[in-house]
Amino acid sequence: MKQKILISRNVPAACLTPYEDEFDFTMPQETDASFPLAHIIDVIGDYDGYFAVDLQAPPALFDAAKKLKAIANFGVGYDKIDWKYATKLGIPLLNTPTQVTESTAELATALIMDTMRGVSRYDKEVRQNVWITPLFSDRNTQLFGSTLGIVGFGRIGKAVCKKAQGLGMTVVYYDKYRASADVEKAYNVEYMDFDALLGACDCVSLHAPYFPENHHIFNAETFKKMKPSAYFVNAARGKLVDEPALYEALKNGVIKGAGLDVYENEPTVYEGLLTLDNVVLTPHIASLTMRSRMGMCDEALQGLTAILNGKVPHNVVNPEVLK
Ligand code: 8YV
Questions:
Q1: What pLDDT, in 10s, does the model give residues 225-268?
Q2: Looking at the structure, do residues 170 and 40 belong to the same domain, yes or no?
Q3: Do 242 and 272 share a structural domain?
Q4: Nearest Cα residue to atom 6 of ligand 1
Q5: Do 87 and 218 sit in the same domain of this protein?
Q6: DSSP assignment of 272-306, as one string?
Q7: What percent of the chain lies above the pLDDT cut of 90?
Q8: Most buried among 5, 70, 80, 160, by the most CB within 10 A?
Q9: Do 263 and 153 reside in the same domain of the chain?
Q10: Does any ligand 1 atom lie closer than 6 A to the CB of residue 216?
Q11: How far does the centroid of ligand 1 lie from the alpha carbon of residue 290, in Å?
């Protein structure tokens, strides 16, 4: 008998085709539809694998999942999944670490370019018949020759580093775990401690995962340590940032501008931010390219296939449960 996999939100049928000989899939049939969490909890007891697409997985889900051998998360960041509880129960958790890298780094780079050069702001002005083009103005900042500080030097941080260097930026980074001398050399980056980086950069781009330990690592104090001419970009996780503090910093000229793809309480955006013209906002779409999204499905399902066949894939977040 085929093993059964439950998928919380509709994905294109083409994602499942390569796996259909092996698994029986259940997912909402309508394009983009989701099963409510309560329904998942009701039925999860029948399934061997669970593919959590854009839905949280609280302890109650794991308690009901009597046959569950693995859970896969659609995304690299697995903060919606109670992974500590899954680990305690011995359930492997998979994510999609390789397939979001370039798309997310691209969007972060787009936000850096947009906020520093005012693309979206000018677009709005031109549509309103406003034509602001003084001959000399510091409304915008040239990327070429500016310094970018990357906070979180994992796959995505490194990809942003390369793209920014391609645009002529000098890149420095901070990470809880400093990279090896070889990696620093290969990427031509300098390590700085967090506070030094904040004070040195023309733009700071955040690429760290969210854990309760780094809740609000960007707050009123950290924004004050940045240059008033500096920009802040976040395409990582909203809860890393104290949003009201960011709003105050942008409103009062503590920093010059920001670009955000993620928010503290998605899909709600802190109201004040909506009123400012020095922040560029996108709706958590950094990985939203067809190539990335199809790749994410495949990376997750490959991982599930491996686990359900007794193998250890590259994308297990808690490999200790497999020992
Ligand atoms: C989301 C992401 O998973 O990879 C991540 O961590 O945040 C995204 O790729 C995706 O937008 C679906 O919610």
A1: 999 999 999 999 999 999 999 999 999 999 999 999 999 999 99
A2: no
A3: yes
A4: 77
A5: no
A6: HHHT-SSEEE--S-TT-SHHHHHHHHHHHHHHHHH
A7: 100
A8: 160
A9: yes
A10: no
A11: 13
- Residue 81 to residue 98: CA distance in whole angstroms: 19
161 and 110 together in one domain: yes
Does 164 lie in the same domain as 18? no
Residues facing residue 174 across a β-bridge: 151
- Judge whether 293 counts as a catalytic residue: no
Q: Which domain holds residue 41?
A: 3-99+289-322
199 and 69 housed in the same domain: no
> Distance (Å, rounded) from C-alpha 135 to C-alpha 114?
20
**pLDDT tens across 84-125, in order?**
999 999 999 999 999 999 999 999 999 999 999 999 999 999
- pLDDT averaged over the chain? 98
pLDDT digit string, tens, across residues 146-155: 999 999 999 9
Q: Is the pLDDT of residue 323 over 90?
A: no
DSSP string, 171-215: EEEE-SSPPPHHHHHHHT-EE--HHHHHHH-SEEEE-PPP-GGGT
CATH assignment of the domain containing 214:
3.40.50.720
Query: What residues does 97 pair with on adjacent strands?
Result: none
Residue 288 CA: which ligand 1 atom is closest?
11
76 lines ligand 1 (CB under 6 A): yes
Number of domains in the chain: 2
Same domain, yes or no: 193 and 295: no
Spot the catalytic one: 121, 237, 243, 264.
237
The residue nearest atom 9 of ligand 1, judged by CA position, is 75
Cα–ligand 1 centroid distance for 175 (angstroms): 21
Active site residue 271: no
Q: Name the residue with the closest Cα to ligand 1, atom 13.
A: 54
Q: Determine whether 314 is an active site residue.
A: no
Residues written for the chain? 323
Nearest CA to ligand 1 atom 4: 75
35 lines ligand 1 (CB under 6 A): no
Selection from 138, 192, 146 nearest residue 169 by Cα:
146
